[in-house]
Amino acid sequence: MRDFANESRYPMIPMEKAIEIILEIVRPLHPVSIARDELLGHVLAEDVRAEENMPPFATSHMDGYAVVATDDSKRRRVLGEQDAGAQLDVTVRQGTAVRIMTGAPLPPGADAIIPVEETTETDGYVSLPGAVPEGQWVHPVGQDYAVGDLIIPKGSVVGPPEIGLLANLGRSDLLAYPKPRVAVIATGDEIVAADETPGPGQIRDGNSYALCAAIRETGAIAQRVNRIVDNRRALYEAILEAVSETSVVVTSGGVSMGTRDLVKPVLAELGTVHFGRVAVKPGKPLTLATIKGTIVFGLPGFPVSSLVSFENFVRPALRVMMGHRALWRPEVTAYLRHDIAHKPDRTEFQRAVIRQKNGGTWWATTTGSQVSSRLRSLMGANALLRIPR
Ligand code: AMP
Ligand code: MG
Q1: In testing the pocket of ligand 1, which one of 184, 207, 297, 302 has its CB within 8 Å of the most ligand atoms?
Q2: Which DSSP helix (H) or strand (E) runs through 265?
Q3: pTM score over 0.85
Q4: Separation between Cα atoms, residue 44 and residue 245, nearest integer Å
């Protein structure tokens, strides 16, 4: 006889408790050495300090003339041209100037730049306004950073400016948190792959594709496994194989109360189930297990439930593993433009578009029907409305 119990053996826990359990279990992955050009999006696990000054020598910040600042003569002999990337062998003194390009080293004797727009040069002489403040348009040694400066503190997320600074410093191969590999398994007798033709009673899988995209968007590596039928042996083998190859496994479907919802018992057989029901909507049957050090999230099958559960529970866990300190999206308080129905006994997440009115109050508009099969309710949404229990 198939088990068709009308009561779950797992107690319903509040969302906050579920998050607490997840954060107790997940740990950042061990930092590894990663080449600079592969570092985008990774979190650094070491401090980066400057071993050189930037600029390494005083340079001009303008195209113009290098001069002695206190020189008040209005006409000076031009000694030559100092281009970027070269070093002219002249010294600037009273009554002389050197034509200079942006980024070129300041010639000896010069301590200010007069922009070309304020000058006229004819027959080897340049007319200038006169004395200027010392240091005008000079980019002094170490102004951007100096030897010993902490340039990128550990814990920073590497973005384009960090990549640029690492290149400036001549650094590569830095200690950083690796990206976890996450296996995604869609379950269900009725599910076929996206490029297959559904038979009678079947539908195409959307969840494993959406979840893989969400995993990549989070910065982790997604590995899609072909859908597994609602069969204990098949699920057991697929999950066992997935946990041996990845740091996280995400399943979709098969965690509810149906006779063919076999993910929970299989997880319990393979490892430890930490919770099997959470007071959230959508996503009540969300399940968390650990099997041989791999974390398994059993997400519900309804498309909205699986993606919203991913957002609320899997994404923060992946961010911990990737070394992020900031786990959550920004939160604001918003006013509803309309009434909404809601389940008072669960923390509910409704998909909405929020807009700030004249830089002040946020206003939320629903994306329409919130039924958990309707993936389109997530399209265009820029917010999840958290409606408290
Ligand atoms: P389950 O959680 O397995 O009871 O599935 C709940 C509902 O979600 C059922 O209507 C399923 O057909 C549907 N569903 C389950 N898995 C998927 C999937 N991978 N893609 C789209 N719909 C799914
Ligand atoms: Mg199912």
Answers
A1: 302
A2: helix 263-270
A3: yes
A4: 25
